[in-house]
Write a structure and sequence with these properties.
about 300 residues, alpha/beta, TIM Barrel, two-stranded antiparallel ribbon, 12 helices, 12 strands, globular
Amino acid sequence: MAITILDGGMGQELVRRAGRATPLWSTQALLDAPALVAAVHRDFFDAGAEVATANTYAVLPDRLAPHGLEDRLEALTDIACGLAARARDAAGGGLVAGSLGPLGFSYRPDRAPPPEQAAETYARIGALQARVADVLLLETMSSVAQARGGLMGAGITGKPVWLALSVADEDGTRLRSGEALAEVAPLLSEFRPERVLLNCSVPEAVSQGLPILAQMGLPFGAYANGFARIDPRFDRIGATVDVLEARQDVGPDRYAGFAAHWADLGAETIGGCCEIGPAHIAALARRLKPAAREAKILG
């Protein structure tokens, strides 16, 4: 089984390097410091990543509108996807994944629009990303309805679609909506995304959920976060990530241990989400693909 190594969390890495958090989060760097985004992509590739996830997670109409930037959606998408593509090309290969983040807000599927309305938005932004991206990655989908809207919209682009679901940190067998993770099975049968993953939940919850994904007949994988918990204040557009605390007990080696367990469960696509940086990706690449990692270093 060939494992694909994803990159890590772009947004939190940008906050760490820039030394500040703003309501625009990772989008701020596209406006002020695109070279910083390029550097993060490069560092993830150097660490062993084989996928550059474009910095478009928060390039969404509902995130841009409060800042009067909705008319910049296409331009910001082009900048982000172009940076990822140039990093891929400089690395000598790999994939660009266009990131389609959750409408409404992360971890709050109750704030998401109905699937049919969401599909219209995802079709629009998916088409923009598809001009450059090799695949479209629906990230942090936290309910069956939220995932349905994403799949309906992204599916019309003709590009492969990867669906990443976020499970409850306290119970990885359930989506953040409270629905059983197993309830996504009919949706997967209907839309047949190329891959299905768990993302942006604590590693322990991901380990609980993956055996359920393994029963669904699709290639699967995972990329967990390194947050201690999701602060209740982080619940609406405009909230800043400085209210979120990073765990101190999930360093690169321990994270690589989680990744090795996921590989043992059959995961074929493994990387990191928020607070998982280049050092974590290097550690899991050494653990999961030592020959490829060594060839990259020597090359």
